[in-house]
């Protein structure tokens, strides 16, 4: 399912991406006799896989998830156009003490990608922490339990 979703968005399965890792794990588990060929986890069966795209100034962010859990994010640079076909400068972002949401996580991922030159989210890195915080906040109703941007940036 993830391979199909990746192919729809990227035009092919991403080398070293979530679909490739999932296929490798599934092949290993099937050969070990732990799962049947067409068997799927409850998360995949009930919630499926999702590959979503978010366009922000200067980048296109693709997020891949299974059962609501983010497995990978990729950032593809995109020019920011102003009038007359001239590339416009991107605006600075002011960060306040508010709960982290998905757009914040995407912006942090884009900034991390520009800074590192890598489009792969580093496990335990700032972008991964922001994504975890956004996922937590989306599942939490009480504002006092939500993780704030300052909490993520000062880790």
TrEMBL record:
PANTHER family (UniProt xref): LATE EMBRYOGENESIS ABUNDANT PROTEIN 31-RELATED, SEED MATURATION FAMILY PROTEIN
The entry's family comment says: Belongs to the LEA type SMP family.
Indicate what this protein is called per its UniProt record: SMP domain-containing protein
Q: Which domain of life is it from?
A: Eukaryota
Keyword Protease on this protein?
no
> Is the Repeat keyword given for this protein?
yes
What are the alphabetically sorted keywords of the record?
A: Repeat
> For this UniProt entry, which residues form the secretion signal?
none
Q: Which Pfam families match?
A: SMP
Show where the SMP domain sits. Answer: 1-32, 91-139
Q: Which residues form a coiled coil?
A: none
């Amino acid at each position: 399912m993830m391979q199909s979703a990746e192919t729809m968005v990227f035009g092919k399965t991403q080398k070293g991406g979530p679909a490739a890792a999932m296929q490798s794990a599934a092949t290993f588990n099937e050969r070990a006799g732990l799962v049947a060929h067409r068997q799927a986890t409850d998360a995949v069966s009930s919630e499926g896989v999702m590959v979503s795209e978010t366009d922000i100034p200067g980048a296109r962010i693709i997020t891949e998830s299974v059962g609501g859990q983010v497995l990978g994010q990729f950032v593809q640079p995109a020019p920011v156009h102003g009038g007359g076909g001239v590339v416009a400068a991107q605006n600075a972002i002011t960060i306040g003490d508010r709960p982290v949401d998905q757009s914040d996580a995407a912006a942090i991922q884009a900034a991390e990608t520009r800074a590192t030159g890598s489009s792969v989210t580093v496990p335990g890195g700032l972008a991964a922490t922001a994504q975890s915080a956004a996922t937590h906040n989306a599942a939490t109703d009480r504002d006092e339990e939500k993780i704030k941007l300052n909490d993520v940036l000062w880790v």
